[in-house]
Amino acid sequence: xxxxxxRVTIKDVAAAAGVSKGAVxxxxxxxxxxxxxxxxxxxxxxxxxxWAPNSSARSLSRxxxxxxxxxxxxxxxxxxxxxxYMEFISGIxxxxxxRSCSLLLRLVGSLEEEIHLQQRWWRERQVGGSVLVDxxxxxxxxxxxxxxxxxxxxVGHPSLTGGLPSVWTDDAxxxxxxxxxxxALGHRRIARVGGPAGLGHSAIRAAAFERTMxxxxxxxxxxxxxxxxxxxxxxxxxxxxxxxxxxxxxxxDNDIMAVAGxxxxxxxxxxxxxxxxxxxxxxxxxxxxxxxxxxxxxxxVHGFGAQVARMLFDVIAGQDVPSRPVTTPSLVPxxxxxxxxPAG
Amino acid sequence: xxxxxxRVTIKDVAAAAGVSKGAVxxxxxxxxxxxxxxxxxxxxxxxxxxWAPNSSARSLSRxxxxxxxxxxxxxxxxxxxxxxYMEFISGIxxxxxxRSCSLLLRLVGSLEEEIHLQQRWWRERQVGGSVLVDxxxxxxxxxxxxxxxxxxxxVGHPSLTGGLPSVWTDDAxxxxxxxxxxxALGHRRIARVGGPAGLGHSAIRAAAFERTMxxxxxxxxxxxxxxxxxxxxxxxxxxxxxxxxxxxxxxxDNDIMAVAGxxxxxxxxxxxxxxxxxxxxxxxxxxxxxxxxxxxxxxxVHGFGAQVARMLFDVIAGQDVPSRPVTTPSLVPxxxxxxxxPAG
DNA sequence: AGCCCCTGATGAACCGGTAAAGCTCCGATG
DNA sequence: CATCGGAGCTTTACCGGTTCATCAGGGGCT
Lengths: 344, 344
Description:
The structure is a homodimer.
Chain A: H1 10-17, H2 21-28, H3 36-49, H4 55-62, E1 67-72, H5 76-81, H6 83-98, E2 102-107, H7 111-123, E3 129-132, H8 142-146, E4 152-155, E5 166-169, H9 171-184, E6 190-194, H10 200-215, E7 223-225, H11 230-242, E8 249-252, H12 255-267, E9 277-282, E10 295-298, H13 301-316, E11 324-326, E12 330-332
Parallel strand pairs in A: 1-2, 1-3, 3-4, 4-5, 5-11, 6-7, 6-8, 8-9, 9-10
Antiparallel strand pairs in A: 10-12
Helix pairs in contact in A: 1-2, 1-3, 2-3, 6-13, 9-10, 11-12
The structure holds a DNA duplex.
């Protein structure tokens, strides 16, 4: 016995206000064609009846959708720990809210799954456009999604996103800053614990790391790839610290792995920062909660998301949008980095 | 010069297959009325043309929507660190995906905002129903949302959710288990760092904490309220450890605050677990990354989300759904809890 | 007075599906 | 052999909006 759910439609409002459907539509969309008096009467009636235009009907008629899609392809257990995404989403939403647009979120298990999902979303017109994240080198999504006309904004360096309008952070420059900072502190054996090599931005950071180290005349070969999880960060750190010539500084690709690294150092009795400096990436609140607090490469993830959303709206509006970087991550030194221990 | 975007509609498919719109609709919805041969021909044509039914049109016609809403009212910075939500969402989505239903996610700044949002979502039929989370005592959402016919499932103890079908974890029992465990280890001065008192489940845990302590003849007054953030967890821990008679064990309301507590203990030179035992809540991966690793009250958040989604579908289907608990969190002892130090 | 134009409104067509009623043909039945 | 029933489609009427052509009425101009 579900409630009758008295559906109020535009017709009811029109009847109650003594005008035609068309007039109600004009009034609600703030278009000319109705007098101020009529408009107000219509609004009053609509409020009284608790009416709001049915979004399916509006979409159908207008041939447009007020929703955008975001599919994230990482295990949920990992995502929960990545402060990045929620912050990023919140940035997107800050822009969506202004335009009363909604975010369709989906966690997918593979890029193939994402391809199918995005195709479906677009064919069924469930979304007006999509945000694509986590680009790989030769990303398999580019071909299938490039051709179908889906308006999209890519998050990632233009070298990865195959001509899609993109927003990215200049990770190469940030990596260089991180390395130079550690070198200035006297570190010579610097390691890096990165994300999966297939992931575009990990590769970019890896390359920048090697290059910067080489430029400074140091050995840049000391970097490990992980799957971004804390556990893998811990394992990587453990193996680095067990090496015969262990590094005096480690740069991580996210906060979680840095926290894990800190745990491993403590477990192995390696003093941070006296014997080992650690540098995190993203700089979530987590970095301020550990002891010692974690130095980090910090950036405005919220603003990043907002920028992406704004650009997507432009793309949907049919504008020709140039790719552009957002502000480069910058170093926030805290207690986990210190001058290198005297060579021993 | 946006692409012409040749919109393929059911009419095109019908024409190409040499049948009527109706036949295509029947075929695609797996309803009787078309022969097997025709059905296959229609599918072949649809695949070739890359057609999928327009979701707005379908919603409009069917008077139903294949999306559900979730609004979360916590600061984004905090959410990112709460592994709970992503895991919860992923649980919801595991069920939605089976029914090709989408999740509309919104981060809101206040419960008032959520009320407006949910009302709009429902009036505009953007969602078929909603998941309501983070119930407060005398929650302001109950009145405005109860009356409008929005199908909803509440996450929270029935005492908080005003007659809405609910799913909840038996926090009271879990708190009791936590306390008894610590007491069994010899702890007598046990503190609790909880969430905001207004939040229903915090209140329930607080009450259960006091009651259990009282039952055991101990002082249950030692609990602090926070806003769930790591920083507040750190502050609370600091104040507890500075007290004249400091606790020998602390129970936290989430993982992040426990991690922060661990940081504070280290900073103050209080040995964990020798001088102080810490117990986290939720048991995300984070608990295994610190040193020492964190004992925690663990539960299946993914399954929790799935359960909620399943129930919401039943509600939307018009069934009369009984509220029910999911499995009670259970203790996972790790390295942060140990026998109480000898009284001194 | 006759004409034009502008404002404020109406009515019908349309968006792309679904659903129910209607129509055809065919084999089975009395 | 007329009749009935059902399988297999088609037709048509919605769903609840938007949009556009049309129209009535009133004021200003010649």
